[in-house]
C-alpha cells in the first residue's frame, strides 16, 4: 500500500480516514500515541516539523493539514467525481468551502469560546455571527455545498461542523443539524467511524 496515514483516532486524523474511505484507495493506518508524545518523535518531526498528526504519505509525497490532504486525495484519485475538474465552474465554490473550515470556521469558534479579543476588521475570519450567516448561505440551497453534488468540500467542512456540534461549541441551527445528519448517512463515513473506534479500542483509548 503506497498510502500511509499517521493517525490517532482522537485527532483530525480521524477525518482523513473518512477522506480515504470516500476515494476508495488502499491505505495503512500507522498509530501515533499522542499520550506518549510520539507525535514529537524524530520520525514524525522529519515528516512534519509541527510535531502533529495527521501526516499522510503517498509514495514520496508528504502531506499535512486536513484540507490539503483532502484536496490532494480528491484531485489524484477522484478528479471529476469528488473534485470538480479545473475548468468546471463548480471548482471555485469547491475550493472556497474547502478552505472555509480551517481558515474561518475554526478560528471564529475558538475566538468565541476562548474570548479572543480580535478586531474583526483585522482578523482573517471576521466574527462568529458572520460565520454562521455565511454557513447558512452555503447550505441553504443544499443538500450539499455544491447543490446536489457531494464533494470533498463536504468532507472537509462537514467534518469540522460535525466535531464542533458534537462538542456543543457551534450553534445547533436546524440547517446545520440536517446537513451533518445527511453526511452521517454516507457509507464511507460510517466505515471511517468504525475504523477509528476499532483503533481506539485496540489501544485502550476511552472517553
Explain briefly what this protein structure is.
This protein has helices spanning 13-23, 42-47, 66-77, 91-114, 128-139, 152-166, 174-183, 187-202, and strands at residues 3-7, 28-31, 55-58, 61-64. By secondary structure, the protein is of the alpha+beta class. It folds into two domains: 3-79 and 189-202, Glutaredoxin (3-Layer(aba) Sandwich); 91-186, Glutathione S-transferase Yfyf (Class Pi), Chain A, domain 2.
Task: Looking at this protein, list some descriptive labels.
single chain, 207 residues, alpha+beta, Glutaredoxin, Glutathione S-transferase Yfyf (Class Pi), Chain A, domain 2, 2 domains, four-stranded mixed sheet, 8 helices, 4 strands, globular
Describe this structure in words.
The protein has 207 residues and is α+β, with helices and mostly antiparallel strands. The protein has 2 domains: 91 residues, 3-Layer(aba) Sandwich (Glutaredoxin), CATH 3.40.30.10; 96 residues, Glutathione S-transferase Yfyf (Class Pi), Chain A, domain 2 (Up-down Bundle), CATH 1.20.1050. The chain has 8 helices and 4 strands. The chain has a 4-stranded mixed sheet with strand order 2-1-3-4, covered by helices on one side. The mean pLDDT is 96.
Distance linking N and C termini: 31 Å
In which order are the strands of the major sheet placed? 2-1-3-4
Decide which structural class fits the backbone: alpha+beta
Q: Within the CATH hierarchy, at the fold level, what is the topology of the largest domain? A: Glutathione S-transferase Yfyf (Class Pi), Chain A, domain 2
Total number of helices: 8
Order of helices and strands: EHEHEEHHHHHH
Q: Report the sheet with the most strands, covering strand number, pairing sense and barrel closure.
A: 4 strands, mixed
